Amino acid sequence: MDLFKLGKDKDTGKIVDVSEVKSGLDCNCVCPNCGKDLVAAQGEKTEWYFRHHESTDCHTGPEKGIQELAKEILTKKSRIKLPSLGSIKYSSATADKKVKNLNFNPDVSAKTNGVPLFFDIKVTKENNANINTYQNGKHKSVEIDLSDYVYTSKDEFRKDLLNNSSNKEIIYWKEEKFNTAQTVIALLGTGIALGILALSGRKKTPQKPVSTTQKLLDNSKDLLKNPKEILKQKEALKDFSKNLLDKYRH
């Protein structure tokens, strides 16, 4: 860690850079760790930084500021670069939220492809006690190690946090496996069966539903090559079957 450059705005609770506030006590900031008043030292000859207004035994304000800023960024964004996995997309990110089956509140909880994902933000050299819990519980999780990070600006920090995979380590990660062939056959079979049921008793089979079914069959080979499309086709089959039932049941 470098100089104490990140404080917590008293009014908004957001992390602010020392360059974003007024000088002295007018900065309206408190320490992200202990919550006591900060002074913005903005001299003409020295690099700007925060310091506690009164004497204190708090020495981890800079580290806590880095951690809190990381949480803010992760909860606002939706993509991050990870080692061996590259850039992944996540959603529904929240900070310090209570999670079932965990005896602590993860730094950031999110979802990726509908599966819970946890980010653990490390800012000290101490052993991370949460790692065993994530591994033993088989929770998809990533450690972001900022213990040696030298902060310079919010923009640079945001880039390093989201785009630099070297400061991250996978704690636990297992991709969900699909039995692709069986899933495709089951989905197509369900759609066709419903279509036949809806058309039973009709003297003439309309061309449009048949051509739609044939199109889905023709696309089955593509589905086998791309499991991620299965969920999309599942929804398409639902709509297709519903339309058939509504149109031909009377």
Structural account:
This protein has 250 residues and is of the alpha+beta class. It has 3 domains: 6-59, no CATH class; 63-172, Trna Endonuclease, Chain: A, domain 1 (3-Layer(aba) Sandwich), CATH 3.40.1350; 180-248. The protein has 7 helices and 12 strands. It has helices at 61-76, 130-136, 154-163, 180-199, 207-218, 220-225, 229-248, and strands at residues 6-9, 15-17, 29-30, 38-41, 49-52, 79-82, 86-89, 91-95, 108-112, 115-122, 141-145, 168-172. The strands form 4 sheets. It has a 5-stranded mixed beta sheet. Strands 2-1-3 form a 3-stranded antiparallel beta sheet, with helices on one face. α4 (180-199) packs parallel to α7 (229-248).
Main sheet makeup: 5 strands, mixed
- Average predicted local confidence, pLDDT: 83
Number of DSSP helical runs: 7
Beginning-to-end CA distance, first to last residue:
73 Å
Residue fraction in strands: 15-25%
Helix content: 25-40%
Structural class: alpha+beta
* Count of spatially separate domains: 3
**Cα radius of gyration in angstroms:** 27 Å
- Please report the first level of CATH classification, the CATH class of the largest domain: Alpha Beta
